[in-house]
From TrEMBL:
Coiled coil spans: none
Keyword GTP-binding: no
Signal peptide, first to last residue: 1-21
Record-linked Pfam families: OMP_b-brl
Annotated protein name in UniProt: Opacity protein
Amino acid sequence: MKTLLFSAAAAAVLLPAAAMAQDDAGSSTRRIEPYVGVMGGVHNFDSETGKEGIPPVGYKGRMVEGVAGVNYNVAGPIVVGVEGTASKGVSGDIDWEYGVAGRAGVKAGKDSLIFGKVGYKWVNFDALGPDSLDFHGTTYGAGVELSPADMGGSAQSSNIRLRVQADTMGNFRSIRPMAGVVAKF
């Protein structure tokens, strides 16, 4: 699993360089769009015993998350991509989380995006002590990135998007609503 994480991190670092070297001769839409963002939210775990490696206690916590990724405009409004995340708990039972996910979405309006994602996430809980094991599992969710150009702004497009998403871990063993801002470059 750590090989997957390192491979995704390498892709997230190297693909922006490829995007800057790309020549969009005659095209107003870039095919490769790297982005970064900051989000905040809450992660609530079920109290049911699960087989997905999630502890059987109703842990929860508020967190701040950094996100970095790359989207690729496949054809028309279809977008695929990969992103990595790192979160730090600011209150509650969660110390930190990190993960990687693949995304697929559809552009809506001038510059907004509706997406779904599937990936893998590792979680460390403060409540289990300083040397506790990381819990991990499959994560999936959906969200929307809203552009100011589509929310009544006068610009034709914007590099800034308001992002709202909800994720879950394992077999619906948690709910993780998040909101924040992402910027493409």
